[in-house]
Amino acid sequence: METAGKTPITVQATVNAPIAKVWEFWTKPEHITQWCNASDDWHAPFADNDPRTGGKFKTTMAAKDGSFSFDFEGVYTNVRDNEVIEYALGDGREVKIDFVANGDVTEITETFDPETTNPIEMQQGGWQAILNNFKKHAEANA
Hints:
The chain is α+β, with helices and mostly antiparallel strands.
């Protein structure tokens, strides 16, 4: 089983929605709870977000059958509206999300430090699935 090294993982999506809507859907808790899950048997029943440098966020991710849940949380280290979000997770891993507007299309590139428990492929697949859910939510609501 390949586990995390020092090489960050990147996932990407092209969202057919303007940057202002993409930013709103990414940062507002009422939207986060609608898209922040990797599969249909999971959901995000709670989200709290203060999207500014020094602000904190927490999203509860839970199996719909109630068998497991965890809080995904951290502190923002750099936030520039409609451009970039960087944060540190509680375990010290770092994440950077770039938002690039091109007319009514927004490119999202998310780069994160892997954890050491799960295989790299599983982590990349999970984060990509969440980003794909975001794309679906943003395009349906823009």
